[in-house]
UniProtKB/TrEMBL annotation:
The keyword Lyase applies. GO terms for biological process: L-arginine biosynthetic process via ornithine. This is argininosuccinate lyase. The lineage of its organism: Bacteria, Pseudomonadati, Pseudomonadota, Betaproteobacteria, Neisseriales. Keywords: Amino-acid biosynthesis, Arginine biosynthesis, Lyase. It comes from Snodgrassella alvi SCGC AB-598-J21. Pfam families: ASL_C2. Its EC number is 4.3.2.1.
Length: 96
């Protein structure tokens, strides 16, 4: 669940100060733990009760696939970035 917490915080930072988004995530995590659920298993209306900025696309960052895709930067886990790193290292190893 820690990975999901991190991504939910990042996602909420789109429109909330970090401190506020951290509080929203803490409340959501607390509820998920009390109900013995993952964050992605909480219904949308429950998540929205923590912040009006939460919309249906929140589930994209709460899924394992969404988490991977969201890290689309150099060294990130998005498939395009992984392919770029593999190509870069292949080129390097051929030159050595």
């Amino acid at each position: 669940m820690r990975q999901q917490q991190t991504w939910l915080i990042i996602w909420l930072k789109k429109g909330l100060p970090f401190r506020d988004s951290h509080e929203v995530v803490a409340r959501a995590v607390r509820l998920a733990e009390e109900q013995q659920r993952e964050l992605s298993e909480l219904p949308l209306d429950i998540l929205q009760s923590f912040s009006g900025l939460i919309e249906e696309d929140v589930y994209q960052v709460l899924s394992p696939e969404g988490s991977l895709l969201a890290r689309n930067h150099i060294g990130g886990t998005a498939p395009a970035q992984v392919r770029a790193q593999v190509a870069r290292w292949r080129q390097y190893l051929q030159a050595v």
